[in-house]
Design brief:
Layout lengths: L1 E2 L4 E2 L6 E2 L1 H9 L3 H11 L8 H17 L2 H6 L1 H7 L3 H13 L6 E2 L2 E2 L1 E4 H8 L4 H14 L3 E3 L6 H8 L8 E5 L5 H16 L9 H7 L2 H7 L10 H21 L4 H6 L5 H18 L2 E5 L2 H7 L8 E5 L3
Antiparallel strand pairs: 1-2, 2-3, 4-5, 6-8, 7-8, 9-10
Length: 316
């Protein structure tokens, strides 16, 4: 093996990386275990500052809390939205703990960076989009915070950019303490998520722009600030709006399934696009999405089985 200042390179298998990465590969272990091994071999004693210890304690307490039954009982609105994604949230906490840097601590929160591909690797996931959407959901709720690149010292920014993987950008995060005041704010966001009929299927920057505001979208999609919505997005929204208004004029109501059938394109893509723009359409045209009951089914002569969600005038 040839060794450069920062990396090892194997001319046989093509491996390249730091000593930590090398040990991870040889010992099939994670980064924390590799670092501990190096510390033990070379008798390196790591001295944590009081600030680092405090942040580590906060993050460890967060993990213990979100994995407890108490979390579900005290904050059911938040739990209902994220309970399936708690492993991803724990993973982000563990990355934060591993990368507490005394020079990147602001207001008792440590800034760390990670690419989506690295987070996916830590979780043994192959679906990068799924991880991206869940991380963005955490950022929307306030469980994590995304940091603008312009607020990162240039030397750390350059180091982080080395880990960029294809089109998946490196993002910068911090995680707050899940104290009572913070959890109250997160609960309000969870309620807003429900009020605006948000779902993970359509969760995106476009959804936040259309359902809430550009500023709200900028907090989550920090590196795409103030980008305009695409022409294709506007065209679909216009088609969906016309379809909804025509159906309501004809029969007094409409269902999402009826809307999707009347617009050209692949069914799953249309479902996702409709999720992103539906709330904006409802608010702009004084409509509401409600679950049908016996009275509504009888009033509009709805023949479908069960009680589907229907879109009707908000005046009714």
């Amino acid at each position: 093996m040839a060794k450069t200042l920062y990396n090892y390179y194997c001319f046989g298998c093509g491996f390249s990386g730091s000593i930590v990465k090398l040990i991870e590969e040889i010992a099939n272990c994670n980064k924390v275990e590799a670092i501990k091994f190096i510390q033990k071999v070379y008798n390196i004693e790591v001295v944590e500052t009081d600030r680092q210890k405090k942040i580590k304690e906060i993050l460890e307490e967060n993990i213990e809390y979100i994995m407890s039954k108490v979390f579900e009982l005290e904050y059911p609105e938040i739990y209902k939205i994220i309970y399936r994604y708690i492993p991803e949230l724990v993973c982000l906490h563990e990355l934060a703990i591993q990368n507490i840097n005394n020079d990147l601590i602001i207001d008792d929160q440590s800034i760390f960076f990670a690419s989506i591909s690295y987070i996916a690797k830590c979780l043994h996931y192959s679906n990068f989009k799924r991880i991206t959407d869940r991380v963005n959901l955490f950022a929307f709720l306030g469980l994590i915070e995304k940091i603008d690149k312009k607020d990162i010292p240039i030397n750390y920014l350059q180091e982080a950019e080395k880990f960029k993987h294809g089109r998946y950008i490196t993002s910068y995060y911090s995680i707050p303490s899940y104290c009572y005041s913070k959890m109250k704010n997160i609960t309000e966001k969870a309620k807003l998520y429900k009020q605006k009929n948000m779902t993970m299927k359509g969760f995106s920057r476009e959804l936040l722009v259309r359902s809430l505001s550009q500023d709200e979208a900028n907090k989550v999609y920090v590196q795409q600030k103030d980008e305009k919505l695409s022409k294709a997005s506007e065209q679909f929204t216009n088609k969906a709006t016309k379809t909804i208004l025509n159906l309501i004029q004809q029969q007094g109501y409409c269902t999402e399934e009826q809307i999707i059938k009347q617009i050209r394109g692949k069914k799953e893509e249309k479902k996702t696009k409709l999720k992103r723009c539906l709330q904006e359409i409802l608010e702009n045209h004084n409509l509401k999405r409600v679950k049908a009951n016996k009275e509504l089914k009888q009033k509009y002569n709805i023949k479908s089985k069960g009680y589907p969600f229907v879109i009707i005038s908000a005046k009714i």
